[in-house]
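Running log. JK asked me to keep both predictions on one page so they can be read side by side. First protein, sequence followed by its tokens:
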Amino acid sequence: MSTKLAVEVGKLDLIYPTINDSIKSTSDLSSKSDSEEHSDSDCEEEIDDVSPVSSPDLPDASEYPLLHFLFSTQVRENLFDKLLNEVVRYHNSAALKFKRGNNTEGTLLYVPSFRTLSRYEKEFKKRSSILLEAVEAISKNAKCPPNDACESLIMGLCHYYDDALLSVAVKRGMADGALDRKMDEVSVEAMLSKAGVNWKNARILFRHIKQFFGRSLFVSEKKRRAYFGNNDFPPEVDSEMLPDKTIIRYWWKKPDLLLQHQIKQIINPGDLHGLQRVDICTGGDHGGGRFRMLLKILFRFVDKPAITRLFEIANVLHSQDDIGILNKTVLHKIADGLRNIKRGGRFIVDNNMQLFFDQSNTENLCDVPTSLYINGDLKYFAQMLGRDGMSTSWCMWCQAHPNEWRGLFSVPLQQLWSISQQLEYVQRIEAGVLKEPREKKGIVSLPLIDFIEPRHYIFPQLHFEIGAANNVLDYL
């Protein structure tokens, strides 16, 4: 019945007056009625023209022009509530972001309405909660790390609710274990690295802190040394935050600086006699939730066995073997150190046991050439050579099509890949000259390390044997 009535009323094309018009019409009508009522009276009062009544809750037009217009043309009952509800539904987010008058970003947080605290606790644990939105807004505005922004927020809450914070700490067991906690290896090295404190001065600092608190607040130096490769060359430590708020902690040691710092511990002056050349091999692998890079140095002699030393030079704590993560964290830093070694091409140790890679103006104990090599699995090779995501049919070392393979020694030298040839192929692919997979020969992008030739990538014998055995078993 109500629907039919609404339809019939709509057909009448009635024009409804606005609030101001209604007020004015009502006032005019009232004025006319009063005039008729007193027309025969002897009252000589002059009846003024009646203007629209101004509502005390109508926003000031000069300060709030949009709200004034909206409130002037619409029924004002619960209008502000309706407006805010529509804005929240339109954004469909707990955080409403807008541009302020000074062109900076502002954030309004929408607190959901629940009847129980358990629902709030569940809501606040979500990645889209207003708590994380608040931390992100503070971090962006103050240009500080999210951890610092979170600490600022917690400090503000503690100012009013310190008992509540202590209660939460007790419930989570944080207060009980706080006295027994120690800074781990990475945290200690990050602190010392950013403060510019070497290990000698760190020992003095840690000793005084231990005397004051009555216990050590840091892991032992022995554990730190073991974690970072058992040498006195401290690593550089940093962290990277991903878009999903995941924090990746990592550390690295530049290979050239590591060797120059540790040369006296690596080899004795007497062992340098008869040295023919120095081979330096670096590689990486992912496992156990982290990516590690190692550096191996081999001293080659004419008439005696080689002397080898092994160092860990990088460590990235991340669950996925992602080349993008390596680029953002340690890869370019390690490559810069290797490039310095490659650029000089020499391994020069003077009489003071100082190491140089290009030239020395003093008398030397040795001056021999160096060669750089890369070790790892085929996936690591593909990442380094700009072949990440290529077809597995193609070879890392030669340009021959799989149908042309006849043996390990049948490929002509001119078909072996070089860095310059790969660069040329990338340019032709980007220019649209090479389009078909057979023409691209597995090339995807530029090599990440463009100063070590593919022929210096050591063939992964173990992985090949495992793969070959698996293929044989699959066909049994």
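And the second, directly underneath as requested:
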Amino acid sequence: MVGKFRINTFDRGVITRSMASARTAKPSSARHETGTGTPKHMAMPLGWQNYFGFVCTPRHATYTNAQREQAFTVSFPTATQLVETSLTASPRFVDGSKPATSILSVVPARHVAGPLVEGAYLQLECELDRVIEGFGENGLIVGRIVAAYAAPDALRDLENEADASLRAMPPIAYIHPDRFIAVTETLSFPFPEQMRR
């Protein structure tokens, strides 16, 4: 167990069944202090296998830490954790310290170097696969998911109504430029008949 989460060997279904909103992920990598990263709103599963990525600038410690450690973690905060996780994006002091990170409860990852936000509804441990540069000043950090953890309330039963899971543990989504929403209701997407991934 990691916090209140049950451990899963990676299964793509953990992300699908958790109703994860990748728009508010919080990638982190190990550091000599607390190891907490900053929230990223351009984060997403990549393809149908076990890859996850996020966009970041080399000016951020998360970028260089992921390269140095060859790993990173991702935590999807609950709506009640949004203030604390957002404060971790505050600038460091001249001495390099970041007091805002002390308010966030973290637990160590088990398979890679880095912390996981305790109580987050979905947590991923990733080994660095590659960094793709060339998106202006940004790069795409790509990891291979080696472990995934989900809060039981966040997992939806694919046989039952999705909105019941949403009400129990609503994912949050970022709305540019400065808004967020806790998703508590969905509608069926009008896929064409016979559509395949």
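Observation for JK regarding the second prediction: DSSP finds four helices and eleven strands in the chain.
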